[in-house]
Amino acid sequence: MVDPSWQASGVDAFQRAEAAQIAKELAEIARSGRVLPGSIVERRSRCGRANCACHDDPPKLHGPYWHWTRKVAAKTVGRYLREDQAGDYHIWIDNDRRLRELVARLEALGVAALEADERTAHRS
Ligand SMILES: [Zn+2]
Q1: CB 66 within 8 A of CB 81
Q2: What pTM did the predictor assign?
Q3: Disulfide-capable partner of 66 in 28, 36, 79, 81 (CB 3.0 to 4.6 Å)?
C-alpha cells in the first residue's frame, strides 16, 4: 500500500502521526455513510398574489422553507426539504465540510514533505 519512496522522503514521525490521526477521522466519517455536498439554507418568499400578506408592510413572508443546494457541473441545483429532513441532514453537510478539511490537511502534509525533500530544487 505505502509507496516505499515515502520513507525516503522528508516525511518525519510527526507527519506520519498526524496522517494517522487524519486517517482515523476520515474513516469514521466514511463509515457513517453520512456525507452530503452543498448547504442547507432557510428561505422565506413572496408569492404572486398582490393582495397576499406577503406583500404587506411589514411583509408576512411564506415559509420557512428549507433548501438544499449544491454545485453540479458549475451550476447550482437545489431541492426543497421538509423541516425534519433539514434537521437530520445538517450533520451530513458538516461531515462533508470536515472531510474536505481533512483532505486539505493531508495535502498540506504532502506539500511540506516535498518541500523538505532534499532532492527538491530550490526556488530560483
Ligand atoms: Zn403571498
Answers
A1: yes
A2: 0.76
A3: 81
Q: For residue 59, report the distance from its CA to the centre of ligand 1, in Å.
A: 9
Please give all residues whose CB falls under 5 A of ion ligand 1, grouped by chain where several chains appear. 47, 52, 54
Report how far ligand 1's centroid is from the alpha carbon of 16 (Å): 58
List all residues 6 or more positions away from 117 whose beta carbon is below 8 Å from its beta carbon: 9, 10
Contact 43, 74 (CB under 8 A): no
Domain boundaries, the chain: 11-116
